Amino acid sequence: MAALCTAMMVFTGCSPGTDSSELSDPDSTWKGGQGTSDAPNPAPEGVKNIALWALPLDEFVPEFSNLDNYAEQLLLASCLQESGIEWPVPWQDVEEPTSPVFNPAGRRLISVEIAQKYGFRTNLGPSKSAQLWEEFLAYEPTEPGFQDAFDECLAGTREEYPILEVEDTLVVSGLITQIQEQAFLSPDGQEAADRWRACMQPLGFGKLPDNPDEFPSIDLLKELGSVPPVTTVEPSAREVEIATAHATCLDSSGFSEAVYEQEWNLQESALQQERAKLDRIRDAVKTREAAVREIIAANAPRA
């Protein structure tokens, strides 16, 4: 599977998407809101929704799912079959709701409701699609000449169905990251972060970061058994306690609201300044997403 992962890492990675069997992602940025639902639906473009952490640049971000990867693997399977090589891409439920702890743009969400149910974990267990994808990732082809055939098929597939330019995705992700930092460093963000720490400090959860988005630390997640390998998918009572306290303090301190408002305003400004470039990127994103769904409809195996 090294060849597959190398080929796909640049754009989609080698994970089964939002509903993965990984239970925590210590590198994620956590975003708080006052509420959520078990299956977040996209917020209308241009409409504030702190529960989903919906922002103006969301429409320029590729769909947060495994569909792009799935479509490309289906094309590779068809191409490899012509050389007598099996590439057993499994059925995937393309209508499966996204994970309740991610918003449609791929941001990790944290709220009291999420914390009480999931702790700091991304989900309570993999779906059927995720389980099938994990099995596929473990597949080891045995046919001689596989690597050469795979590389040739991949090149041909991407020539006919180009993936998004890495530079374009970096433009959007770079803007988002820069704005997140600016929002945190704003006077409102800093004052609210101080209030969050004052709320959390008496609870005895160890050293607290300057930025609430960096809580919990990787060491705390390991202590809670919330990073792979895990012994249980259910969060412990201690993990739920800490996650709920964190979410409660995010709200009571006003940190989530302050940072969200800053990010919204800064993203609106960036959108106006970079309108022509971002419109081109959005058109490329939408064109690719439409092609992906056509590929899946024409090539996906039956359930």
Task: Describe what this molecule looks like in 3D.
With 303 residues, this protein is an all-alpha fold. The protein has one domain (2-299). The protein is built from 11 helices and 2 strands; from the N terminus they run αβαβααααααααα. Strand 1 (30-32), helix 2 and strand 2 (108-110) form a beta-alpha-beta unit. Helix 2 (67-81) packs across helix 11, helix 3 (112-118) runs antiparallel to helix 9 (237-252) and helix 7 packs antiparallel against helix 9. The two termini are 24 Å apart.
SSE blueprint and pairings:
Elements: H1 2-8, E1 30-32, H2 67-81, E2 108-110, H3 112-118, H4 128-137, H5 146-160, H6 166-185, H7 187-200, H8 218-223, H9 237-252, H10 255-273, H11 275-299
Parallel strand pairs: 1-2
Helix pairs in contact: 2-5, 2-11, 3-9, 6-10, 7-9, 7-10
